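Predict the 3D structure for this chain.
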Amino acid sequence: MRPVSFKTRLWLGHVAVLAVMLALAAFGADWALRGVVLGHIIDDAILSLASTEAAALQADPGRSIRVHEIAPSAGPPSFVRLDKFVQIIELDGRVVARSATLGTARLPTPAALLTRLRDGETVFGTVTDFGEEPVRMVSLPVDAGRARYAIQVAMSLDDAYAVLRFGRWLFLGMSLVILSGIGLTGALLARRALRPIDKMVTQARRIGEANLVERLPHPGPRDEIGRLVETLADASHELRSPLSRLRAELEVTLRRPRPAGEYEETLRSCLDEVQRVQGLIEELLELARIDAPQEPEPAKPITVGEIVEAAVAAVRPEAERRGVLVAVERPPEVFVNAAPVAAKVALANILDNAVKFSPTGGAVRIVVTADQEEAVIAVSDTGPGVASEEAARLFERFYRGKASRSMDMPGFGLGLAISRTLVERQGGRISVEAATPKGATFSVHLPRE
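Done. Predicted structure below.
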């Protein structure tokens, strides 16, 4: 079975969420319309007429009990009473009077209803077996002198149900139109948004041995996709450069027979390029592990001294090879809340940069300070320093500053990016002081325990 494309899954998810939202909105609108039609319009109308009859009955309890209808030819039509049935009963269920609209029928008076009326309760109900149409009925108890009666007013629900049915079809039709319109728009937007990635994939498949110099197409704006293209392009460039040099050296060496010493020199040069590629791949894998949606290393209380000691031990061999002194002021016994391995890797990357940019005979100094909220590990070197306009970009992936490019320093511009991500996951941050012309100071801020 062919797997569903990401574009299709994105569109299906969008449509599914929208369909659920529209369904909930349609159900809510139907419930609200039903409440308005039955609860406010119909119930208020029949209760108003029942109250009118009750007031007339209480005003003159001595007269014969009757429904106050307008006699034929006695005046204009009463629209309030045209579609309603009125019945007056005693609380034992005996009918005392009823409207002409009832004919020979009578409104139901079950025993449970009479009990609630005797308790003085106004009762609303829907009667489904009254004639050809269901009716909505209210029963209102009333005291007229020494006697007690109940006024019953009922109204057909046929028109109300027709309105509700029309409302349901209207909600369904509107939902389908909205779903179709937004679904189509979503498909077009998804296709447009993912078109740069499609172009990248197509171009990547075309890049082969004969055209390694080609680059992936840039979408234009520096949005998420633009940064993705730049990252992939930078990574491919960093991989392509040593591989191209490696291939060129091997091709030149194999053009004619050479002395064993030249072969050994070429192999050593090739080994350096292989180590460079291996270093890049390891840093890319580290970035992939950091970005992966997995449970990070848990934080725990650890002294700053342990973090500093582990990071210094990792860079000391390279510092000794370059003739750079790594000096550590005795750190205070301060506990921080951090993941030990992540904190060590982050600080080691900063120390590695400081050692690389310090000249032979230079020094890298580590000073630890602390306050109530955080501990600060400051790493200062004696290198060329950092230009103020570059400070904000130092932590971007694959970015290499002017000093790195001019001094042809090994590296890929990933170490500081990895350090920042790891430190921020601990709830900390990294700052840089770029104002001094000689050297730079990077400070790692970690929250105290």
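DSSP finds nine helices and twelve strands in the chain.
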